[in-house]
Specification:
By secondary structure, this protein is α+β, with helices and mostly antiparallel strands. About 20% of the residues lie in helices and about 15% in strands. It has one domain. Strand 10 and strand 11 form a beta hairpin. The termini are close together.
């Protein structure tokens, strides 16, 4: 997904573009000239999920207080008064990640089908390393995050709870269309699917008809200072470019600084999903996770049949079952409908501007194609 954390920042890849979650962040900071003073963009527990604050929310969220995992947040007032009529949605997001721990802000995420598509299409076919064309750090796990989100009023008035999926490179928003949407609608959660009957196959529409994982979705979580890379996300930009992550314990209000909360609640190792002891042992024994040429693995057959819808669904079901068995106290949540609509969102489509029908340089009608290439793999580890 570049919903996953790595070079495909957010699951993007110039080649394929998927959500990864952010492999670039910590290691890139180490190599940065400003690494010494660089601060992480957040922490996995930065925004905590909300429960039972408003009567309307109480019934929906009560079941999420499983095993005391989710602290009780307080209702909005003052600076955190609810400012949007949009409903609060609660659901799981997933990130394909390496062994580093860091925030999913300014990265791409996915649902389970979307995460599996990212792995299948961009990662597991590389023979000697479980990494990708744009993700050099080996992937090792699928993380689960419990997310609450609320659209801003300007987006909800257009009939949407989700915006466009923004793509990221080392925490910097790279598209589509110069990320102008973050100023226009605010840092709202983005989503896309590959259902050819929907108007939400953007910016990675090149996979419509190729991604056969049923109901696959990718998401984006806009964070603060999204015009800068991780090591520069501090100082004045924290005020001029607010992110959507709410402070600890706050119900999403729909303001331009509070559109979602998240909390990591679990993970599965990829080797656990494949039912192998380790990737290294598989390779040492002459095995291979997946070979594009044969459409099969060697000594492991979890990934056999990338274009077989039934096999894709069985993989989805298998991963869902593993999460349920590992975390029986956690509720089963349904993925929300991805109601992002390309033509509602961009009033002058195929021009990606919100203020004029005249394309700016680099923002022409051809930019829809360029946007699709501005990818997912950059850092969605």
């Amino acid at each position: 997904m570049r919903p996953f954390g790595s070079a495909l920042a957010t699951g993007q890849t110039l080649e394929t573009g998927s959500p990864e979650a952010g492999e670039g962040s910590p290691k890139a900071r180490e190599n940065s000239p400003k690494a010494a003073q660089a601060q992480p963009s957040g922490g996995p527990g930065r925004a905590v999920l909300v429960v039972g604050v408003v009567v309307a929310l109480a019934a929906t969220v009560a079941g999420l207080l499983f095993a005391g995992v989710i602290p009780t947040p307080w209702a909005g007032e003052g600076d955190y008064a609810i400012v949007s009529d949009a409903p609060v949605l609660h659901y799981y997001m997933y990130r394909v990640q390496n062994d580093e721990d860091y925030s999913p802000e300014n990265q791409n995420m996915a649902n389970i089908p979307g995460a599996l598509w990212y792995l299948h299409n961009e990662i597991v076919w590389h023979h000697w390393l479980r990494a990708g064309t744009f993700a050099s750090t080996p992937k090792s796990r699928i993380e689960r995050f419990l997310v609450f989100s609320r659209a801003t009023q300007s987006l909800y008035k257009k009939g949407m709870n989700f915006g466009v999926v923004n793509t990221y490179d080392l925490g910097k928003c790279t598209g589509p269309f110069g990320c102008e949407n973050l100023q226009h609608y605010g840092p709202v959660v983005g989503c896309e699917t590959w259902d050819p009957d929907q108007d939400n196959n953007f910016p990675h529409g090149q996979w419509v008809g190729k991604n056969l994982y049923p109901n696959a979705s990718w998401y984006s979580l806009p964070g603060k200072c999204s015009s800068k890379k991780f090591w520069d996300q501090q100082g004045e930009c924290t005020q001029t470019e607010p992110g959507g992550a709410c402070p600890l314990g706050i119900v999403p209000t729909g303001s331009h600084s509070c559109t979602y909360t998240y909390q990591k609640v679990g993970e599965l190792r990829i080797s656990e999903i494949e039912n192998i002891s380790s990737f290294e042992h598989l390779i040492e024994g002459g095995g291979r996770e997946y070979d594009r040429a044969t459409d099969k693995g060697v000594h492991v057959h979890f990934w056999d049949g990338i274009d077989d819808v039934d096999k894709c669904q069985r993989r989805i079901d298998a991963v869902n079952l593993l999460f349920q068995r590992k975390y029986p106290e956690q509720p089963i949540l349904t993925d929300p409908a991805c109601d992002f609509s390309l033509r509602k969102f961009y009033p002058y489509w195929p021009i990606g501007s919100f203020h004029t029908t005249t394309p700016a340089p680099g923002n022409s009608s051809n930019s829809s194609e360029n946007a699709s290439e501005s990818s997912t793999e950059e850092e969605t580890e």
